[in-house]
Structures are given as C-alpha cells and as structure tokens.
Amino acid sequence: MMEGAWVLFSPPKKVYLFSYLCLMRERFTNRFYFLIIFLFSALALNAQNTWTQKANYAAGNREAACSFAIGNTGYFMTGLHGDSDYCDVWAWSQASNTWAKKDSFPGGIRMGASGVSLNGYGYLIGGEHPSNCFVTKGFGGGLCGGVFYSDFWRYAPDSDKWTRLADFPGTGRNYAVMVADQQDTAIYYGTGNNNTVNFLYDWWVYKTATATWTQLDSFPGGQRCYAVGFLANGNIYVGTGHDNDNKENATSDMWQYSPATSAWKRIANVPGTVRRQASAFSIGNNGFVCLGTRANSIFMNDMWQYNAVQDTWTTAAAFPPGQGFFANGLTIGNKGYIGTGTYGSNLDDTSWFWEYTPNDSTAGINEIKNKASVNVFPNPSNGLFQLRIKNYELGMNMKVYNLLGEQVYSQLTINHSPFTIDLSAQPDGIYFYKLTSSDKEYSGKIIIAR
C-alpha cells in the first residue's frame, strides 16, 4: 500500500481472496469456510498506516481537554468551547465504539490540565480556571488573572470516583507535559505556563509506591509551553511547543530523558515545520507527533513517527480531517487516537474522534527475519504454536512481544526442536517472536485467532 493511502485493499487482492473463498466453499467444510471469512474480515480490520473515524465525542465540540486511557477505555474530561468551560468526564469503549457519561471531575472547570494512566488508575494535574483573557509574552505581552492549579487527582474506573492526592509541590500551571513510566511506576511532569513573563522548564517525578514528588534536572530545552511528551523503548521524549523566544512562537526540537540515568539528551528535531499545541501518542517502541500550529495562523495535519530503537523519524499517514491543534492523543492497545481540538482557518472546535492503525513493525521488532529458517505452525492458532528451527542450536532463547512492545512470553533455554509456545493466556491479536543464539537471530509474526 502506498504511504498515506486510505483504501483497505487494492482491487487485485480483493478479487483474488474472493475467488479463493469460493474455491474453499466447494472443497472444504462449512466450519473451515467460516474461518476463511473470519480471516478475510481480519485483513480488512488490520489495514496498516491508516486512520478510521470513530463515534464523535459525545459531549460535543471541545478544545484544551484532558485525556487518558485505562485498559480498553479512553477518558476525556474538562476543556472549553467558546465561552463555556467544563468539568465533565466521558468514557469511550473501544469494544462498542460508544461514549458513556461518568461522574464529573470534582476539581471544577479548567482548561489545559494534564492526564496520564498508570497501573489501572487515571491521574490529572494542574490546568487553569480561565479568566476573560489569556496572553503571554509570545502572543503580544501582558498578563491575565486566571487561577493556575497545582492540585493532583487519581481516578478509579471501577468505582467511577476521584481521590485528591497531595498537591504537586511546584508552581501551578497549564499545558504542561505529563508522561507515565509503567516499568518504573512513576509519573514525570514539567514545563508549562503559569502566566508570568516566562514559561516553565522544571522537571519532576512522582513515585506511586511512596506517594512522593522529587524535583529532577530541568528540561534542557529551556522555557516551554504547549510541548508534547511520550514514552517509547523505556525513555521519555519531550519536545516541540512554544519557547517564548522563537519568532514563530513554536519549535521542533526533541529531547530524550532516561529514567534509568536521570539524564537528558537531544535527539533529531521533529521533521517538517516548527509547531506548538501538537498531539502525540506512542505505540510500542514508536512515538507519533502530529497536528500543531505556529505564528501567522499556519496549521498542520502531518504526522511523524519516531522509532526509538533506530533513532529515526519517518512520515506516517496524515490526519484525514485536516489541519488542527489543541487535540488530545492517547493509546489503547495497539491503536493510537486523536480527538477533539480546533481545526481550519475559522478555528472551529470539533468533536471528531479518529483511530490510527500502525504498521506491524511499530512494536519495534522486525516483522520477518530469516523466515525460511523457522517454521511456526499452526499460524494463526488458538494460542498454542509449534516452533521448528532448521538450524537448531542448544541453548537458544525465545521472547514474544505484543504490539505495544511488551514482553508476554520468555523461554531462556530451548533444548529441543520442535518446541511448543504456549500463549493461550493472551488475547487474540498479532504478536512478534525473537529467537536468538550466540550468533543467530530469527524473528517473525504469529497470530492468535480463536
């Protein structure tokens, strides 16, 4: 498929599969026929590097909202539209493509709050109770009287209840970067605006195990507002946004923060134009940055994919509705989502909600490598696979990853071939295996389809 294409199949493939279905119907049982139909449908549902529109945000048009995902559910809350500000909370089900209203956020109306999920909970911090104006140095000078929050909240989806935690010890702010590290069970937070003549560039970590905040080395890119952040391959990436110095009121720099070493490192800029108020999400070892605006009312709809293993940027499918900013990005499973925001030259808020399906290789593992040397059967299966290795060596090890890049299976020593891989506890979907020895490496794709 050509990059940026919006069709699910090319006509030749569709005709070929249809002919194949007819042949199977004549020669095999109805049960096998229905299995082929299922696989045909799965191909349609797994078109790669494509966007699919989902049910619009049920609360209507919105910008400057806050969002996070817990399990297979995405949550949107707060924000503004026109002269109205909100504290409502809505949940979108990936399974049913429907929205449901939840209990309102008890912290009150606000815009520009930050949210993440961690260990089955949602977290919200900061934001601004809007005043009747909002300008800063970069937009022409002057200060306004909005209230900038430092309150910190945790949301439990099972009870649909919010709990206020100890306040963030730093300066209250809005439009800050907030990223959760699942392995470290920590939340990182920094940058943003508190309506002084300078933006903020401090950087903090919240450890859930001890419920404590610690200030870390500051963001080295300098004062920053409207930046984006994401986690990929164990590191945190922060960049783009408004640095209060650039004549475009926007930047394209990107920085890597290592939780393991607490060190910052600059990486290659986000390609394309400088941007602020962009959107971001991550899938596996890849981060995605899209949309945004800069001075002179220039808006973007392009999307760029960062491979954190290879340290490279490549283009991904542009956002189909068009140019926009102030939208929310989140990840559910192996899909990325962009919703709400402001679009077009008229700066209209919308309720759009779109789903992005990445390439299989987004998990950060080569899809097929030395395929002829490894035979996995049956594939697809119900979760039990037989692995036959042509050049088997004693002491080879096996790891299996899901599309988020999370390891779901490990066998440190394979002492015979064929070998059984038991993934019966995993949900249906696409997985990647990596088989290594002292001097060989094999990898490939396996599918669970019950």
Written account of the structure:
The longest helix has 17 residues, at 11-27. It contains two helices and 40 strands. Helices cover 7% and strands 42% of the residues. A four-stranded antiparallel sheet has the order 1-33-30-29, with no helix packed on it. Strands 2-3-6-7 form a four-stranded antiparallel sheet, with no helix packed on it. It is mainly β. It is globular, with a radius of gyration of 23 Å. It has three domains: 11-45; 50-361, Neuraminidase (6 Propeller), CATH 2.120.10.80; 371-448, Immunoglobulin-like, CATH 2.60.40.3080. It starts with 10 loop residues before the first helix and ends with a strand.
Topology, element by element:
Blueprint: H1 11-27, H2 30-45, E1 50-53, E2 66-70, E3 73-77, E4 80-81, E5 84-85, E6 89-93, E7 98-102, E8 114-118, E9 121-125, E10 128-129, E11 147-148, E12 152-156, E13 161-165, E14 177-181, E15 186-192, E16 200-207, E17 212-216, E18 228-232, E19 235-241, E20 251-258, E21 263-267, E22 279-283, E23 286-290, E24 293-294, E25 298-299, E26 303-307, E27 312-316, E28 324-325, E29 328-332, E30 335-339, E31 342-343, E32 348-349, E33 353-357, E34 374-377, E35 384-389, E36 396-401, E37 407-414, E38 419-422, E39 429-436, E40 441-448
Antiparallel strand pairs: 1-33, 2-3, 3-6, 4-5, 6-7, 8-9, 9-12, 10-11, 12-13, 14-15, 15-16, 16-17, 18-19, 19-20, 20-21, 22-23, 23-26, 24-25, 26-27, 28-31, 29-30, 30-33, 31-32, 34-35, 35-38, 36-37, 36-39, 39-40
Helix pairs in contact: 1-2
